[in-house]
Amino acid sequence: DPVPNTTDQFFAFIAYECDLFEEGSLANLTASIIGNVFGFKAVSALRLEDMRIPHSYLKTFQGPATGVIVERERLNKYGTPLLGATVKPKLGLSGKNYGRVVYEGLKGGLDFLKDDENINSQPFMRWRERFLNCMEGINRASSATGEVKGSYLNVTAATMEEVYKRAEYAKSVGSVIIMIDLVMGYTAIQSIALWARDNDMLLHLHRAGNSTYARQKNHGINFRVICKWMRMSGVDHIHAGTVVGKLEGDPLMIKGFYDSLLLTHLDVNLPYGLFFEMSWASLRKCMPVASGGIHCGQMHQLI
């Protein structure tokens, strides 16, 4: 089918046999769907706009362990958006000052604070120092407000052994949520999602790096496909963009991202970019996080 308002672009609908894919493996799924085909000389550009994953194949993935309802029960917050923020400046603060920002933000009314994508374990603030100071701020703010509070502790590291080590430490000091970056890769994301499920921890995914292949309109992958893959992988939260703020995003397309994460059944909705009807089987909902340069003056636009 021709792409509207173009003369040299077309939609191609391709079906694959389920037997061609290993069960429960995003790495194998993506190796086939977005493997060598994107480098073929026969096509000048190629973009994966949407996917319909069959019910039988979806059931081989774990999906989010917590989901939206259980998270609200844990926080005892209903009927209102959950409000969070990222610690800024994201680089350069000492552990003590970082923890102070966490405390002041949570005491001021936020439900969560979070590390940014490139806060890992730098010379100015090692990860243990950050975790301890964040937990001190969380505990003080919870005591002062009587509410459940948290901070997304980024456990992204160079190796999975180190990721598990940091995640175990975050759990041992009392954190209820950890965070990873999309750049870790699909196998790493599925692995830490399994760990989070087994250890009763919420898992937040920062979509760092997605725009390298999602932003170009004629080549790459639409982010709605990443949303589907990440819901399958088992993350509880994912940055899903926002119409206002500093990051690029079309209002209807972003609504499509949110629908892919929150609905139990998707219907065809071309304005939202949803090309296929699809049931999510028994996979829980994934919490979309509106993110990217939002400030108080934009809240009325966001809601």
Question: How would you describe what is shown here?
Answer:
The structure is a single chain. The chain is of the alpha/beta class. It has one domain: Alpha-Beta Barrel (TIM Barrel). Helix 9 runs parallel beside helix 10. The radius of gyration is 20 Å and the shape is globular. The mean pLDDT is 90.
Percentage of residues in strands: 5-15%
Biggest sheet: strand arrangement: 2-3-4-5-6-8-11
Mean pLDDT: 90
Broad structural category: alpha/beta
For this structure, what is the CATH class? Alpha Beta
What is the CATH H-level superfamily?
Ribulose bisphosphate carboxylase, large subunit, C-terminal domain
Please give the share of residues in helix.
25-40%
User: How many domain regions?
Assistant: 1
What is Rg?
Answer: 20 Å
Q: Residue ranges: pLDDT <50 for 5 or more in a row?
A: none
Stated plainly, the CATH topology is called: TIM Barrel
Let me know the largest β-sheet: 7 strands, parallel
Report the principal-axis shape: globular
- How many H/I helices? 11
The arrangement of helices and strands along the chain is HEHHEHEHEHEHEHEHEHEEEH
Calculate the terminal CA-CA distance, rounded to whole Å.
Answer: 36 Å
CATH architecture classification: Alpha-Beta Barrel
Total beta-strand segments:
11
